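Quick review question:
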């Protein structure tokens, strides 16, 4: 059974150059044991070291699993993902606003070694952050000297995020 699920997961992920998962493949994914298919899809996700169509399709397939907790998925794969994916996952957290997501973004802003990822965390906090994020953002404004891949300062994005949060709280 597990060998069959492994082969089906591989076929779903490698079946097309399009990052979207077809309705047929969604149904197939959800007809299988969810723990087993999630495990196999994660293996395919981790197999690719950089941003690739295979990694993207594996992630898209994971999001198709019924009853999957997207926040738990992102938390689980975040630290084991390459830089480009950690930056992308910050934006994924912004698409699913929650206290857990904000807490993860704060942690990333304060602790990730890569300025691109910290910049993305600050940007996401500007979109979904609340008063809880202000202290971390203020710390970044004062102390983060990093710049993203375009040369944009993390501190400037953190300042913009603070302004967005304050504007939202004013109504």
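Suggested answer, residue by residue:
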């Amino acid at each position: 059974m597990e060998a069959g699920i492994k082969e089906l997961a591989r076929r779903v992920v490698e079946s097309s150059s399009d990052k979207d998962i077809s309705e047929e493949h969604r149904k197939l994914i959800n007809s299988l044991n969810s723990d087993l298919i999630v495990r196999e899809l994660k293996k395919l996700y981790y197999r690719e070291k950089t941003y690739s169509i295979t990694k993207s399709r594996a992630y898209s397939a994971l999001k198709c699993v019924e009853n999957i907790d997207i926040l738990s998925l992102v938390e689980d794969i975040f630290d084991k993902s390459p830089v480009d994916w950690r930056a992308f996952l910050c934006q994924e957290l912004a698409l699913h606003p929650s206290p857990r997501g904000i807490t993860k973004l704060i942690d990333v802003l304060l602790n990730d070694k890569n300025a691109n990822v910290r910049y993305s965390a600050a940007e996401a906090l500007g979109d979904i952050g609340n008063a809880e994020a202000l202290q971390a953002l203020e710390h970044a404004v004062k102390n983060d000297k990093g710049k993203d891949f375009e040369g944009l300062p993390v501190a400037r994005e953190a300042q913009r995020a603070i302004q967005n949060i304050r504007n939202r709280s004013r109504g």
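Why it works: Residues 72 and 100 are 9 Å apart (CA to CA). The chain is about 75% helix and 0% strand.
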